[in-house]
Amino acid sequence: MQTTQKKSVVKTVVKVTPTKKAKAPAKAKAKASVKKDETDPLAIAVKNAVAKKEVVVEPTEPVVVVESTEPIKEPEYELTPVQANVSQLDKATQKEVKRILEENKLDWDVRKEDLIAVSTFTENGSEGIHLPTPNSGIYRNDNNIHLGTTSKKYTCYQNSELVECIYEASKAVNLQITGGGFCYEGSRVYLDLKLEDVYVGNSKIKRSITCLNAHNGRGSVQFGATYTIIHKTATGTKANKFTKIFGDNGKFYHYANVSSRVKSAIAGLFESLAKEEKTIETMLAMTKVKVDEKLLHEIVKKCFRVDLNNTTGNVATRTLNNITAVSQVMTQQINNEEGTLWGLFNGILATTANRTPKNQSEDDYVKAGRGNLVNMKAFDIISNYLQSRK
Fold first, then answer.
1. Could you tell me if 167 and 192 are in contact, meaning their C-beta atoms sit under 8 angstroms apart?
2. Strand, coil or helix: what is 4?
3. What are the angstrom distances between the C-alpha of 296 and each of 137, 235, 306, 344?
4. What is the pLDDT of residues 123-146, one digit of tens each?
5. What are the residues facing 208 on neighbouring strands?
6. Of all helices (H) and strands (E), which one includes residue 97?
7. 15 near 55, Cβ under 8 Å?
8. Cα 34 to the chain's mean position, in Å?
9. How many CA atoms lie within 13 A of 62 on its CB side?
10. DSSP readout, 16-50?
11. What's the rounded mean pLDDT across residues 104-120?
12. Nearest-angstrom CA–CA distance, 282 and 205
């Protein structure tokens, strides 16, 4: 029987299962099978289908090869965000990012390693056995220094990613990355975006917006401002350093996607510029107010736990020496700024630097260590005092 169906582009294949027939004697069945294969159209179609490796259906009617006119549907794929890396940027940006990393000694990555405990328990034969922990350690790839301990869910944010993000975001505020570095062997890294120098009292201030990231498992990417306060002394010039972190302003977490990071960074830079301007206004206000004796004693006691009044009675020699040292520095700085609160604040900065622990560098201590917290506490105390006078 001849079919009248149209041929088309894509062949839909059929598999035919012959209908079962009654069993015949072996010899007769073999002969009948050979003869049928040669003449039966159904058998010929099945044979051709198998030879072409086509798929089959099981009809009870003669095989008809049908061609579909429907277009082939492409499989659907779900797009997933790709993590940024230097190779995804244009060549000019790649070159600039690489330069910033190398010049500021940030051209290294970090990794996360699961931490284990080696048992020292001997009673049940457990000594030397490796025990699992829920924590991971963060290590520098270039020298294997341990930077911090965190949970296994922690996401590392590489220095190259930070530079790429801030490099792109800085275009929105018309600033450039002009410096950077790391503290505490790399547990904290930072980038500086230079602002114009200003003068406050008798001091010249070099300032920049600062972006900080943590590789120690704590904190997110934060923004602040760094000040190098240069003033003349009898022996030359001296610089006090102050980094003010602007809290949750514009911060973003490591696990945010690339687009969100850049948007948060742009917002963070704009907000930082506004807060930095207010910080300078506060510093200028300090130059107009003389030091109050009560405030001086309060701030020294809160920041350094030193009671300037405790100079009589049974005072240990070490304590007395500490009081004398703090008092001398404070007096010198206050006199340099004509007895104003600006001199008081600089006295705190100088004293903080002088009290840097022996196992730390001054830059680490005042930028990302406890010294930074002391200096910000002093700034807040003086700011609140100025507000109370209004």
1. no
2. coil
3. 43, 26, 11, 7
4. 888 888 999 999 999 999 999 999
5. 194, 226
6. helix 91-103
7. yes
8. 76
9. 8
10. --PPP-----HHHHHHHHHHHHHH-HHHHHHHHHH
11. 95
12. 14
In contact, 366 and 375? CB cutoff 8 Å: yes
> Residue by residue, what is the 3-state secondary structure of 190-226?
EEEEECCCEEECCEEEEEEEEEEEECCCCCCEEEEEE
How does pLDDT run across 64-82, given as a tens digit for each residue? 444 445 544 444 433 333 3
Give pLDDT tens digits for 276-329: 999 999 999 999 999 999 999 999 999 998 888 876 666 677 888 888 899 999
Q: CA-to-CA distance for 214 and 351, rounded, in angstroms?
A: 26
Query: Confidence band (pLDDT; 50, 70, 90) for 252?
Result: confident
Three-state DSSP at 227 gives: strand
- Structure-block tokens of residue 103: 């010049």
Contacts of 132 (CB under 8 A, 6+ apart): 114, 116, 117
Would you say how long the chain is, in residues?
Answer: 390
Q: HEC string of 154-176? A: CCCCCHHHHHHHHHHHHHHHCCC
Residue that the structure tokens 């089959």 belong to: 56
Neighbours of 13 (CB within 10 A): 14
- What are 185-212's pLDDT values in tens digits? 999 999 999 999 999 999 999 999 999 9
Retrieve residue 181's tokens. Answer: 């570095």
In this structure, the dihedral spanned by the alpha carbons of residues 62, 65, 70 and 73, taken in order and rounded to 10 degrees, is: 100
- Reduce the DSSP state of residue 112 to 3 states and report it: strand
What digits encode the pLDDT tens for the residues 363-376? 999 999 999 999 99
Place of tokens 């506490």: 377
Provide the β-strand partners of residue 132. 116
**191 bridge partner residues:** 180, 211
Backbone angles phi, psi at 299, to 5 degrees: -70, -35
Query: Is residue 146 packed enough to be buried (19+ CB in 10 Å), middle (13-18) or exposed (0-12)?
Result: middle
Write down the number of H helices and E strands in the chain: 10, 11
Are 334 and 347 within 8 A, CB to CB?
A: yes
CA distance 372 to 349: 9
